Description:
Two copies of one chain form a homodimer.
Chain A: E1 2-5, H1 10-21, E2 27-30, H2 43-48, E3 56-61, E4 64-69, H3 71-81, H4 92-106, H5 115-122, H6 129-153, H7 168-182, H8 191-201, H9 204-207
Parallel strand pairs in A: 1-2
Antiparallel strand pairs in A: 1-3, 3-4
Keywords (chains A, B): Isomerase
Family (chains A, B): Belongs to the GST superfamily. Zeta family.
EC number (chains A, B): 5.2.1.2
Amino acid sequence: MKLYGYFRSSASYRVRIALNLKGLAYDSVAVHLVKNGGEQLSASFRALNPEALVPALVDEHEGNEMALSQSLAIIEYLEEKYPASPLLPKNLLDRAHVRALALAIACDVHPLSNLRVLKYLTGTLGMSEEQKNTWYQHWCMTGLRALEEKIAADPRSGKFCYGDTPTLADCCLVPQIYNAQRFKCDLSSVPQLMRIHQNCMDLAAFDLAAPANQADAE
Amino acid sequence: MKLYGYFRSSASYRVRIALNLKGLAYDSVAVHLVKNGGEQLSASFRALNPEALVPALVDEHEGNEMALSQSLAIIEYLEEKYPASPLLPKNLLDRAHVRALALAIACDVHPLSNLRVLKYLTGTLGMSEEQKNTWYQHWCMTGLRALEEKIAADPRSGKFCYGDTPTLADCCLVPQIYNAQRFKCDLSSVPQLMRIHQNCMDLAAFDLAAPANQADAE
């Protein structure tokens, strides 16, 4: 498998964690989101993924190479193709719970702090760096505090977002905390999430997936 | 089952379509996102879903009521619990494709045009109505054009986003087109999506789920 990604991209980071948790080997192909006017916008990358977003996972199927996009769709694919070291629980309500935690980050937090969105704020809308950072912190912390409340209230929470084994939810949480720290969010109001984050970072699967440990890290 | 939603909420609309496509009966509970300072922010609704977002689906499980959140997690739950009239194909790569189409809307288009985001733009950031509408149209059409390109290029596209039976992708597409029309987006550049949208709206499952046909419609 080949993973087209960027060291700092949250969505790429999620897939790297999932691949590591499942013990699946893959080759990394760096797509630089800033250099060369954004390599994700190049014709060659758009041929792979017309959405012009990382990550894209290329897997072989009956001798053909198939490109998959969208981090959560890629992780669900890995889960279905390689069921060992499952990232979703068995029980249907618990699966829905874990997916909801993951989507609360993937849909309600991360899209608002995407590089292209921040660029639109400072470029097209002429917002200051300070307004951009306030925007980032507002949406990031609105989402993370809701998640904190949900996890604090749920008896299924454990060492990780769900129980004592990492799931899809942790694959999404860790990159979001990395991002939040980069944008200097005050994370003291989400102690449960920070506890889980630390438990994750103690595992090699998460550590090896971290932006600083990628070949394209700057 | 009880679906807490709002007639105009895209995410609620997605779940209504899925329930109808599967022929599942449900009771609607209206949560007005504007009146009373936003009923989704009330203590009673937050007890159900700390994220303070619609929809929430309440289902019975061993005599207890369980609340599920996040539209895509709810639809995956319905798919697993009620496999008849499947909303995902069988083949793993095709499942990943359909999920990626759905997520391209749910993660890359819809979050940027959420009511709370638009309010932040005009409120906190002091943007004009025109800037707000330009923002909406920019993100909506960036996402929809990428989707158009993907669907136009893919041999699996048919009467619907994938093949000739509606899937999870169509559950997400139709509410986004409704939203785009509301914000007066020029949809002439996405003819494949508009063709699929029409094919969906010809079906009772989609029509009955439309905002105008809800009890709380204004």
